[in-house]
Specification:
Blueprint lengths: L5 E3 L18 E6 L11 E3 L8 E2 L6 H10 L32 H5 L9 H9 L6 H11 L2 E2 L9 E6 L5 E9 L5 E6 H11 L6 H7 L22 E4 L2 H11 L10 E4 L8 H4 L6 E4 L8 H16 L4 E4 L2 H5 L2 H6 L3 H5 L24 H8 L11 H10 L11 H12 L4 H8 L4 H8 L13
Parallel strand pairs: 9-10, 9-11, 11-12
Antiparallel strand pairs: 1-2, 2-3, 3-4, 5-6, 6-7, 7-8
Length: 455
């Protein structure tokens, strides 16, 4: 018997109301993949992750073990009777998955232009604290096929197409931004087109009518079309396409070096699932979840990463706890993500010369964090009094600047803080930093300072 014969059915089986938080149609059921039977209602998971996220795992709760013992006829085992389900007949077989209906390619191509009206793109070029090079912005537009909404109530919004490994457009997310590049509105292009025809009292295009009949539209990763093109690169996985764009602009393009991560996105917190991630089989995947109150987002993705590894042999999912360890509670409450911190840093500090045919190096949990330090170029070339600056650094430091400190030193700082180490011990740790690294951390252009007790 397959060890993992019970899996979450996702949308293959109708969801129930969550028995814990009461959220309507949020309780995902478990199914037996060998028989197609639905497990009793008490086994499942609430996908209302922010408010509940309760998970009743049949493996952890003993159901799987008891059923296995019962089938093997082991004496003394607990007999578990699977009742006929209230909503589903016993031994109901899963229906074959319908083939996806793709977004109309000609309509998609019409989004590829008018970048002078695109608020997100223009912000990257002019309004962010450290404007990007036009050549890099052009490259990221071409790499991810970013587009513009040129008409209607979303005029000026950026479009982020979800393109699968075969080049088919699965869906196009639309986002509006303010001049600080914070999201002010979210939509999907198919919904915008449908609303337009409804307001005009016109029939929808035939392709749209067919497209809207399918339940799943966000059915692949953002950036999935890059996976087969760059087979040797590790993969970075985030929630939002915007964060994937920032990751690429700051940490490099996949064609520059085989060690550079391909930045992909799932769409939102609860969208990390097997159907999307099966395209990652055999890769090293680094997950960077958004922040959340009480760390629920990190916990959810950590659990899902473990589950995905079970079902994708040869795939390694490594989850970064960088933000979870260092972010203040206020940022967690606001749900900040990696992009919210990257945009405050000078992208030039992340750049380094990488020979295109560099030897492949083993990837680690610190890929992104170490890239920052390894790629650093001093903001100032003047000589420094290292001892004097160390003292200043201990008394005043912005927690975000720990991004620029080597991983082993950063961890030593966190451990020293948690263990109540005295000022002299911290000074020994900080003394390991290079003068240019101290200059970078103390530079006022990188933001304000916080006392070390807020680290």
């Amino acid at each position: 018997m397959n060890r993992y014969q019970y899996i979450l059915a996702s949308n293959k089986v109708p969801k129930l109301d969550c028995p814990y938080c009461g959220a309507k149609k949020h309780w995902q059921r478990y199914i037996n993949i060998e028989t197609g039977e639905v497990l009793p209602e008490q086994y499942g998971k609430c996908d209302n992750a922010d408010k509940c996220g309760k998970w009743s795992d049949p493996y952890k709760l003993g159901y799987a073990k008891a059923m296995r013992e019962q089938e093997n006829g082991i004496s003394g085992s607990t007999q578990i009777t699977v009742p006929k389900q209230k909503y589903f007949p016993a031994r109901s077989k899963l229906k074959p998955q319908p083939k996806p209906v793709y977004f109309d390619f000609e309509t998609f191509k019409r989004t590829l232009g008018n970048y002078d009206k695109n608020v997100f793109i223009q912000n990257l070029l002019s309004h962010v604290p450290f404007p990007l090079e036009p050549s890099d912005v052009e490259k990221v537009i071409s790499l991810y096929r970013l587009g513009t909404v040129s008409h209607g109530y979303r005029t000026g919004a950026a479009s982020f197409p979800f393109i699968d490994k075969k080049g088919n457009v699965r869906t196009i997310q639309v986002k509006q931004f303010n001049q600080a590049n914070h999201t002010t509105g979210t939509d999907f292009l198919h919904s915008i087109i449908e609303k337009h025809h409804t307001r005009k009292n016109k029939p929808s295009p035939k392709w749209l009518e067919t497209y809207l009949k399918q339940e799943k539209r966000v059915s692949c990763l953002f950036g999935a079309h890059l996976l087969d093109k760059y087979l040797l690169n590790p993969v970075a996985l985030v929630e939002a396409p915007k964060t994937a764009i920032y990751g690429t602009l700051y940490f490099g393009f996949p064609n520059e070096n085989v060690n550079t991560q391909i930045w992909t996105a799932v769409y939102n917190l609860s969208s990390l699932n097997f159907d999307k991630c099966k395209a990652l089989k055999g890769r090293d995947v680094f997950l960077y979840p958004d922040l959340s109150k009480d760390g629920k987002a990190f916990e959810l993705w950590s659990d899902k990463a473990k589950e995905l590894e079970k079902h994708l042999p040869g795939t390694k999912f490594i989850i970064s706890d960088l933000l979870e360890k260092l972010a203040p509670n206020n940022d967690k409450t606001k749900g900040y993500d990696l992009a919210d911190y990257l945009i405050k840093l000078d992208w030039r500090l992340f750049k380094k010369e990488n020979p295109k045919n560099a030897a492949i190096k083993p990837t680690t949990t610190a890929t992104v964090e170490n890239t920052v330090t390894a790629a650093i170029k001093p903001l100032k070339n003047k000589s420094v009094d290292n001892k004097k600056n160390v003292k200043k650094l201990i008394s005043k430091i912005h927690w975000r600047h720990l991004l620029t400190i080597p991983l082993e030193i950063r961890e030593a700082i966190i451990i020293a803080r948690n263990n109540g180490k005295d000022r002299q011990e911290l000074q020994k740790i900080f003394s390991q930093l290079k003068p240019e690294e101290i200059n970078l951390i103390l530079d006022p252009n990188n933001g304000g300072y916080y006392p070390t007790n807020t680290l």
